[in-house]
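Encode chain A's predicted structure.
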Amino acid sequence: MASSSNPHGIEEVRKEADRLNSEARAADQLMKDITLLLNQHMLKYNWVGFYMLEPGANPPMLVLGHYQGAMTPHTRIPLNQGICGAAASTGKTVVVDDVNNDSRYLACSLETKSEIVVPVFVRGQVAGELDIDSHFPAAFTVADRELVEYCAQLVGRRLEND
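Encoded structure for chain A:
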């Protein structure tokens, strides 16, 4: 179950995410469980975390929630900064194969080589995002993107129902 490029492994992780969703008492628990699941079972996912929009913040601000991996200095990110800000402000998944070639990248770790950021939608509006860093260049395949988007959708639906 531990391969970033093995479709069978990704399917197992997806099924485990479904199980976690069915057992979680609240969206907060689901976010915690998904960060742990992805970090432990996807070999190339070296940092996994949720940033959520701070209610009522002016200017709009992403605030770090549950995460797995090394500590980050970026616990609050304005929407006009970084790859995280780009994903949240456009409402589109952003995949960066080489963070050193993307001027938007906010350096968290010298080891990070690639990143994927997927918006979390609640009632059609961006409420946050799922951010994953990898120590490997071009770590995120189409199958990885589909998995991460699926996990973000699970959290968005749970947030709508909490």
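The first helix runs from residue 7 to 23.
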